[in-house]
Amino acid sequence: MSDKATLQYNGNSYDFPVIKGTENELAIDIKKLRASTGMITIDPGYKNTGSCESGITFLDGEKGILRYRGYSIEDLAEKADFLETAYLLIFGELPTEEQLSKFDQDIKEQSHVDEDVKKILDGFPKSAHPMGVLSSLTSALIAFNPAFVNVSSEEEMYNAIVRILAKFPVLVSWALRKNKGLPLDYGDNSLGYVENIVKMMFRRPNQEYQKNQIVIDALDKLLILHADHEQNCSTSTVRIVGSSHAGLFASLSAGISALWGPLHGGANQAVLEMLEAIEADGGDTKKYMAKAKDKNDPFRLMGFGHRVYKNFDPRARIIKKAADEVLNDLGVVDPILDIAKGLEKEALEDQYFVDRKLYPNVDFYSGIIYRAMGIPTEMFTVMFALGRLPGWIAQWREMRLNNEPIGRPRQVYTGANLRPFVDLGNR
Ligand code: SDX
């Protein structure tokens, strides 16, 4: 197999190196394209363009494969917990007991959030979408942790990383509790990372906290499944903002905003709203399938399709199975789950969806579990952000340690050519 690709244009030939990844993916290295040809490439949505070489997550969209640092998502969802998966993504290896214990302890030591952050939260109307609140509060943390903005050494990065892993769940629980009119509380450092999140989110001020292991285990698995997904929209946002050395917290705040969109992480909320609309419409899935296929109708079947997966999203398989188990264990009967399964069956047999290789993605079933856990629909994408946090951190850290250049794409200009200025009176 050749290690170079040749471009022929206007009677000239240009050779470019071809690089091969550890999973045999091939890429044409065009770093010198403009210098040698005077031309650039153009690829809206970067469907064919690699932004970086990365050792964190591997996807095979045709085979429906997802691995974090070489470990299959199926193994990690079954055998790991979220904190050790976070360690694996960020530092590249599964932690030893000693490493995990130190990581957990370093995080616990930083699990307070300045009381003045509550004053910022107070400024938001109760109706504020929690993703907007979370992006703002994450950016606000910069002001309360100034020493952890301009980090460049591995040690400084570690200190910034444990701080945000500690404080982000507090902000998530505060966003939920604000939404529900509950007092803003702190966690309990005697608990595990995910159990502490559940307690912070759901503890009632006037009731003894009741541990629900089903909810804890379900959330732990969901967070693992959302933890990273290579160069998706929000992760690419974190990397490009971080490439200007804007700092970790600012980069994460930007990533939260990118994830909010209904074509990306916001889809889990949009799926539930779609399923509820179908239920309200008498369960008429055929009407919504027709809308999804109608080119004149902007409606899309939320939770279906994916830029990379042209087969089942492996996470969707795991979440679908978990949805049955969790609802059964919690004794929840939710007609929405039956509507979802009916819609999935129809879509998988529909030629339009088959031709376009549109399968359920990670967002199709996750909201059903969140709903069974008592999480409000508007918080679903916040839960996605909570899961994706270690992946964003890992990708930001890799980009900074690799000293990658500031991200600055080119364009093809299609506007007006040079023209003389016309005074106001003559226009
Ligand atoms: C996530 O990138 C990641 O890794 C993201 C993510 C992660 O973990 O970070 O996996 C999380 O964002 C999952 C995706 C969640 N979004 C949704 O469920 C929203 C609904 N899905 C679509 O909007 C769409 O499938 C995208 C945005 C996910 C992908 O869009 P692409 O890759 O740009 O594909 P496309 O728009 O070019 O679609 C190709 C064809 C088009 O039809 P034709 O023009 O060829 O006739 O498929 C059609 C589209 O109209 N199509 C759909 C559809 N998705 C694509 N038609 C109906 N319903 C859909 N959901």
Describe this protein's structure.
It is a single chain. The protein is 52% helix and 7% strand. The protein is globular and about 80 Å long. A 3-stranded antiparallel sheet has the order 1-2-3. It has a 3-stranded antiparallel sheet with strand order 4-5-6. With 427 residues, the chain is mainly alpha-helical. Bound molecules: s-citryldethia Coenzyme A.
**Largest sheet, order of strands side by side?**
1-2-3
Count of individual helical segments: 18
Low-pLDDT segments, ≥5 res: none
The profile of the biggest β sheet is: 3 strands, antiparallel
Radius of gyration, CA atoms, in whole angstroms: 23 Å
User: Overall pLDDT, averaged?
Assistant: 96
Estimated share of beta-strand residues? 5-15%
**What separation lies between the terminal Cα atoms?**
62 Å
Which features would summarize this protein structure in a list?
three-stranded antiparallel sheet, mainly alpha, 427 residues, 7% strand, globular, single chain, binds s-citryldethia Coenzyme A, 18 helices
Give the SSE layout.
Blueprint: E1 4-9, E2 12-20, E3 26-28, H1 33-37, E4 57-60, E5 65-68, E6 71-72, H2 73-79, H3 82-91, H4 97-108, H5 116-122, H6 130-144, H7 154-180, H8 193-202, H9 213-225, H10 233-242, H11 248-260, H12 267-280, H13 285-293, H14 314-330, H15 335-348, H16 351-355, H17 363-372, H18 380-401
Antiparallel strand pairs: 1-2, 2-3, 4-5, 5-6
Helix pairs in contact: 2-9, 3-18, 4-7, 6-7, 6-11, 7-8, 7-18, 9-14, 9-18, 10-11, 10-18, 11-18, 12-15, 12-17, 14-17
The structure holds s-citryldethia Coenzyme A.
